[in-house]
Amino acid sequence: RREPQLHPYAGEPQPAPLKLPRLPDDASDDRYGSQIDLRDLRGQVVLVNFWATWCGPCLEEIPSMYRLVEQLRGEDFHVLAVNIGEPPERIRSWTREIPVNFPVLLDTDGSAVRDWQVYAYPSNFLIDRQGRIRYSYRGALDWDAAAIVATIKALL
User: Fold this and answer.
1) Which regions of 9-151 does DSSP assign to beta strands (E)?
2) Model's pTM, two decimal places?
3) Of 28, 76, 113, 118, whose CB has the highest number of CB atoms within 10 Å?
């Protein structure tokens, strides 16, 4: 089996703006609607993941993203999981089954998908400390594989 590998990003390295509301942990969560802005994470390494609950490969890779976040705890590393147009209740029922330790952002109108030119799910973009897209991957990936972790650590 081939070791999974990130592909150097060949497109425009400056990402489109990304400022979306965060999925609250539950309906009574007072952070409902709080916005997360990618620009606020400049100086850190960020994995932006576009996904949906109806996408089998998306759901397959989420546990490895969870393990990646655990492995890099204390580092300047963040995952932003951008959900594509699904109602919060559906996403929340799913995250009760498969836990996440990173923010889920709500792209309710599909504007982020359009702006980031996402046409396959999942689509992933790894952004360096200078705010440039350095790597991308379309399709599910084993995010805690040694080669992937090494690539991310090199950016850190």
Assistant:
1) 19-21, 35-37, 45-51, 77-84, 104-107, 123-127, 133-138
2) 0.93
3) 118
